[in-house]
Design brief:
Blueprint lengths: L6 H10 L27 H57 L1 H7 L33
Length: 141
């Protein structure tokens, strides 16, 4: 039966060799052609052991995946909370500035407080101004 190394054993060996396992790109490792990596294709026992191990560890890794997913969800919630806090801070700053500028707005509106749109009354003022008067004689024939 071929020797199978579990992930924990790989991590322990990497630590003993002072190698950070997260720095290794496993996808970039290519074995030479013809290497069987210790798994003999005719050995049905090895395949059965691997199948059992897959069933056994798939539950464990699914749980780990769920934990990671929950962690990511928590990070996303934290990010949203921070964005909401920034928004609330901006709104409160705007309200403060709006209140500070209230007197200036009233002065511009001739002393009328018209912050509420329902209370605002528009006044149309028509002004006629004679700019130039010229007389022209028209002849009708």
């Amino acid at each position: 039966m071929a020797a199978v190394m579990m992930m924990e054993e790989i991590k322990e060996k990497a630590n003993r060799l002072e190698i950070d396992p997260s720095s290794i790109d496993l996808d970039s490792i290519h074995l030479p052609p013809g290497e069987d990596c210790g798994i003999v294709s005719d050995d049905e026992d090895v395949y059965q052991e691997i199948a059992k191990s897959l069933k056994k560890y798939s539950k464990k890794y699914e749980a780990e995946d769920q934990d990671v997913s929950l962690l990511l969800s928590e990070q996303e919630r934290e990010k949203r909370r921070m964005l909401k806090e920034d928004w609330d801070k901006w709104v409160s700053e705007w309200k403060r500035m709006h209140e500070e500028e209230k007197l200036q707005r009233e002065e511009l509106r001739d002393g009328e407080a018209s912050d509420e749109e329902e209370e605002y009354e528009a006044k149309d003022i028509e002004v006629e101004e004679v700019i130039d008067v010229s007389e022209e004689v028209l002849h009708f024939e």
